[in-house]
């Protein structure tokens, strides 16, 4: 019987001695496997917490960046608006005595 291996290795058979259908594990082996799985689970939980924290910080940074960009754009628009307005005419000002 041919089966695919754990990494997709195509030519692993029962005759290779890698796949063994005999479930003869001792209690100590089961305990060791359970302990390793608990450690892996703990590490994955820690990674998930770190990922969530980084994700939250990233969202805060993006929002801060968005606000700063909007403020900068508003300042640029205000400067452009000032440049496009004609200078005040002298017709509206009182005549100079001179």
From TrEMBL:
It holds the Pfam family UPF0184. It comes from the Eukaryota. Residues 77-98 have a biased composition (Basic and acidic residues). PANTHER family: BUBLIN COILED-COIL PROTEIN (PTHR34344:SF1), UPF0184 PROTEIN C9ORF16 (PTHR34344). It comes from Electrophorus voltai. Residues 1-25, 73-98 are annotated as: Disordered. This is Bublin coiled-coil protein.
